[in-house]
Amino acid sequence: MKEIKCYYFQAVILADIQLVSDCLNQDEHVLQWNDQIIENIFDGKEEDLAEGSTYITRQKLGKKIYTLPATYTTFNPPHHVAVSSKTKEGLSKTEYTLTEYDGGTVFTVEVTLIPANSYYKFITNLMKWSFKYVYDDQFQKFIDYVSEQASKSSSDETAALTID
């Protein structure tokens, strides 16, 4: 089946690309801004992640908890990370791209699904407008979190500069 583009988001975040990448890819940060993820259970150490690494993610959507296997299909931080997960609905992929831009970082997210069958193709095409409401809220929380971390980092650097 053909891949269906379910969601697209892009914003400029006034923070260093490495900080944006860390907040996007490290659980110590992800669990602070993403209230859908309960936990990620990695095969091995989180700091050893690479393309092809797998993990289990436990997520809460509404009142339901989902346990999903996930694979890093691309792992090239800070610039590009893609995660895929196979569910009964099909193969979903979330792709993050970060690009340095004029003192900040362009943050781009694209979510796609290759439906498992015609039924899920129909349902996805019918309901993909609703993805915006779920994901926009999460990624606004992400931007706010990164901005807060950047502000703390700036304050720490300023404090360090004034002390020395």
From TrEMBL:
Pfam families assigned: AHSA1 (PF08327)
Transmembrane parts of this sequence: none
Protein name stated in the entry: SRPBCC domain-containing protein
Matches recorded under SUPFAM superfamilies: Bet v1-like
All residue ranges annotated as the Activator of Hsp90 ATPase homologue 1/2-like C-terminal domain in the record: 22-139
InterPro entries given in the database record: ASHA1/2-like_C, START-like_dom_sf
Gene3D superfamilies, per the entry: 3.30.530.20
Family that this chain belongs to: Belongs to the AHA1 family.
